[in-house]
Each structure stands twice: as structure tokens, then as C-alpha cells.
Specification:
2 copies of one chain form a homodimer. Chain A is α/β, with parallel strands linked by helices. Chain A contains 10 helices and 9 strands. The radius of gyration of chain A is 20 Å and the shape is elongated.
Chain lengths: ~250, ~250
């Protein structure tokens, strides 16, 4: 039975404070729920409509499943419109700081928009970038809107949140590329074997803290007149060119 | 004075039917309003707060300007949150069918999401693609959410809506690239001097009508596991690679 306490718990998890207090988060939607139940993450409960449960029975062998009505899903949803399935999930262990000398790593410098972070997680998964390092001011990856925008890629990308001082200590002697409005064209840049690609916040660009560590500025050449590209769009274009360069090495 | 009739007219223009009936549309936000008042489009009236009018006085020499309160802007807005300025604008003349033999042209095959169309208009402006041809089923470019997402690029990109039969008759002997999950890698493709890049709808991809005309399928190679890329993201990545190839020719 769906208790009032469970409804209250789930609804509280829209806020980071309660996700941290309870060490739990909510994933909504068929794509992400089916990804999570097949991952090694600990699912406390899957809450879904009878039709959904029936359709996905084969995947739900290890989890506690509670069948709920459409009306109850409307009460539970943390998004603007409910989906037929929702999972209450234990927070995975914090991702470790990656070995920055072995491969390219993304570094997000205070990205605030959940849609942008979710899109960037999906991009990293598409282009096979294993790790996105997040500043403490970057939007929480377990925010329901980030999870929605990541379209199921959340379980496949490591997302360590790292204190900047610790990160930059760890990043000594690594090539550090800052995405910038002016700099070396990504069309012409020579790709080192490993490095860090830094993406600045939507409103302020790269922080002075990050700027101080950049070894290069990399830009997407503008041919026309638009003032800027969105942070997630710029990331996608840069990842694609860098992936191509890696293949051609 | 802001009359009830004017409020009613502006609010009605959130719907395509009333935009067509009145041959008018509404542009909201500082960026797009300042672009439009400096373009050759006919502005019926700029409605803005006193502070905004004072700040932008130098630009407002040719237009009728009505100062309104914040509260009135809340009544007028067609978006989820009001901006300090809004322009009531005559629809520009329909854009002509472009000369497809001279340059690359984008063709959007039933893109339904206003955010995606707005983002693609901004991308075309960034990469200097002059024309985006739209199918009649594609979301109207004068939809308020498209205008918002286009971030001021609306005045700089031609956006003809064309009956598919007319378009494909006109496109004979032109290379036609369909963006697809499988096909020639954009990293390896050789770029003809001119052609048409077709982007399919968010849910159905390219229609069979368009598929029948494609001379090539072009893909963004996937290295990881994400299921897909969003239509606007795929467009941005393709435009960037094609722009680079053009430069290197």
C-alpha cells in the first residue's frame, strides 16, 4: 500500500537537502527506471502503474515493486507531468577523482541549469567520455530535472563533485582547455592524449579560478551573427570534434 | 494608454490562428526586441517598462512606444515569466524558396518542439547558414517559445515554409543528406559545394517522403551507450563539422 509517509518522503526528495538527509533520490520515466533496475544501484522500491509493471515484469526480478494508480502517480511526480514509473533509489557512493593522465575529462564550472547538466551527461555517454567533474556549485546530478534530461545516461557516467582546490592540485601538468568565445579554433587545435575540457557557467562563463589554470582557450568559430551558443550545445560540438581528432590520431 | 482591446489582441497572438488572422506576432525580451527595432521589420508598437524605455531610448527613434507597468507586463506576457519589453510586430513577407544550387540549406521535417526550432535558428545564425526550409507541419517560427529560444537570431535567418512537393521538385539533382542513426560518418563525409541537410522530427525521424529523396545518410558516430541525441543537438554538431569541411576545401 502507498502510505502517506512514503508519498511525503518521495515528494521531499525534489530538494537536495532531503536527498542528502535520506541518502535517497527519485528517478522518473521508463527509460531511466529500466536503466537503473538493470544497474548495480540499490533500488528501494519501484512504484508504477499496473500496465507498466506487467509490461516490464521480466526486468523487475530483484526489486520491491508497488503498483499505484495514475492518480497516485500524479501525487508522487516531481516533474511537470507524471510518468507511469518511478524508482526510489539509494544514492550511489560518491564517484572517485579520476586518473586525469589517462583520458580526457569534462569539468563543469558552476553549470546551474538542470536541463544543461542532463544534456551534457547524455552527450558524455554518447561520445564515451567516462567522467564529468562537477564543482560544488554545479546543479546536483540527482535533481529530478537533471535525471529527466539525461535520458537514462546517468548510470553510465561518473559524476564526482570535487572541491576546486583538491581538483586543481590533482590536475598539475595536465593540459587544461577552457571553452571560450575567443581562442584556438576547435577545427585547428591539436589534441593531447589526455586533458581536461572546462565548460563555464551559463551566465558568467569560466570563473577566474578556472581561467588561472587553463593552458589553452578553445573556441567554436562563429561565421554569422548569433551572440553565443548554449553551454550544452557548445559542449556537444566540442566533444564531437575532440572525438573525431582522437580517432584520427 | 494600454487598452483592454490591445491586451486581448496581444494575448490572442500566442495562437497561430490569430497570428495569421491579424498578420501580427509578439516578440518578448530585450535581446529580440532590440534586434527587431533595428531590423527592417515593421513594428506596430513597443510595450516596455519605463526603466527599459529610458535605457534603450537611442534605439527607439522610429517606433511607437507605450510605457507599461510591471503588473501590466505580467498580464501581457505569452511566456512563463514576463520580460521588461515586448514588441508587437507585423509578419514579414514569406521568405522565398532559396537557390538550392548555390549553398547548403537546412530542411526541417516536422520539428514540433518550439525550443528545438528556436535553438536551430540560433545555430544557423551562428554558423552562417542563410536559410532553413520548414515543412508545413513544423512548429510556426513566430510561436512565442520559438522566438524566445532563437535568442534574437530570428531576423537574420530566412525561414520559408514550403509545401513538400514544391520543395522536392525544386531540389532535383541536388545532394540531399538525411541525418540518421546509421550512415556515413560526418567525420569522414566529403562535402559537396551545395546541398540540403534534412533533420527529422523528434519522435519519428525522417519521414518516408524525405527518405525517398535522400542521396546520403549522415550520422554522428556513437562511441558510448546513449540511445540518441536531441534533434537540435545533432543539428549543431552536423553544422559545425560541415562548416569546418567548407573552410578546408
Amino acid at each position: 500500500m502507498l502510505t502517506k509517509a512514503r508519498i511525503k518522503l518521495i515528494r521531499s526528495l525534489r530538494l537536495k537537502k532531503y536527498r542528502q538527509q535520506n541518502n535517497l533520490f527519485v528517478a522518473e520515466g521508463t527509460k531511466i527506471v529500466t536503466e537503473i533496475v538493470q544497474s548495480d544501484w540499490s533500488v528501494v522500491q519501484v512504484l508504477a502503474t499496473a500496465a507498466w509493471v506487467q509490461q516490464h515484469e521480466a526486468l523487475l526480478t530483484r526489486q520491491e515493486v508497488l503498483t499505484v494508480s495514475d492518480k497516485q502517480m500524479q501525487q508522487l511526480t516531481l516533474l511537470s507531468s507524471p510518468s507511469p514509473a518511478l524508482a526510489l533509489v539509494e544514492m550511489p557512493d560518491p564517484a572517485p577523482l579520476p586518473d586525469l593522465t589517462r583520458q580526457w575529462t569534462l569539468y563543469l564550472d558552476d553549470i546551474r541549469d538542470p536541463g544543461n547538466l542532463g544534456t551534457i551527461i547524455r552527450l558524455a555517454d554518447w561520445f564515451g567520455w567516462p567522467t564529468i567533474c562537477l564543482t560544488p556549485e554545479t546543479v546536483d546530478p540527482f535533481n529530478p530535472k537533471v535525471i529527466q534530461a539525461s535520458m537514462g545516461s546517468l548510470t553510465r557516467v561518473e559524476l564526482p563533485t570535487i572541491d576546486p582546490d583538491t581538483f586543481w592540485d590533482h590536475a598539475k601538468d595536465i593540459p587544461i582547455w577552457g571553452a571560450h568565445m575567443e581562442g584556438t579554433s576547435i577545427y585547428d587545435a591539436t589534441l593531447p592524449q589526455a586533458g581536461i575540457l572546462c565548460i563555464g557557467s551559463e551566465s558568467h562563463g569560466l570563473s577566474s579560478h578556472v581561467e588561472a589554470h587553463c593552458t589553452d582557450h578553445i573556441t567554436i568559430p562563429r561565421q554569422g551573427h548569433a551572440e553565443s551558443l548554449n553551454a550544452a550545445m557548445a559542449t556537444g560540438i566540442l566533444l564531437s570534434h575532440m572525438t573525431m581528432k582522437k580517432q584520427n590520431q
